[in-house]
Amino acid sequence: MSCWLPGCPALSMCRGLAALPITCLERAKDLKTRLGILLHKPELGHKTGSSSKLQLSSRRRDSSREVLEWRESFDQLLKSKSGVNAFHTFLKTEFSEENLDFWLACEDFKKTRSKTKLASKANRIFEEFVQSEAPREVNIDHETREITRKNLSGATSTCFNEAQAKTRTLMEKDSYPRFLKSASYQDMTKQATSRSTSKRSHT
Predict the structure, then answer these.
(1) Is residue 118 part of a domain?
(2) pTM (two decimals)
(3) 142 pLDDT tier (thresholds 50, 70, 90)
């Protein structure tokens, strides 16, 4: 702002500022900048912190609920990605993870649309899991093995259905109950229950 009239307040202010040492003006500008940052920073930090805490709390509630749902049914366990991972870790301790790996391979196989890929995938799965003396042979009866072998001649998305169903039943009736009783799952449920109890006591 400038003014050429005598006695103008603006002119007096400009003269007063001009009389100040340059270092004082620079310090004043620096102080103003810092003050502006301090005024805005806590507000922004508070919002970000609250938002991240809410998201973390929500994730914990979801995971706690999920862990407790695994014991409701084998289907609930298989629907959960973290449930499948936990079950797979448990099966490794029993040296029977090939059953779950075969089931997962079949699920992936069903999503294949290309006929060429379908045939090559079918052969690969059969050689790895189904045929006699396969590197990771699953525990199915001879009749189911032969039916699956015949299905390969005209591979479709359903050619492993019977073998997959037998393997699933075996896991559900045999491995799944032991998983629910395992120390690792018991620890997970205790943590999930304590988080749920803590959440209820705070509301």
Answers:
(1) yes
(2) 0.68
(3) very high
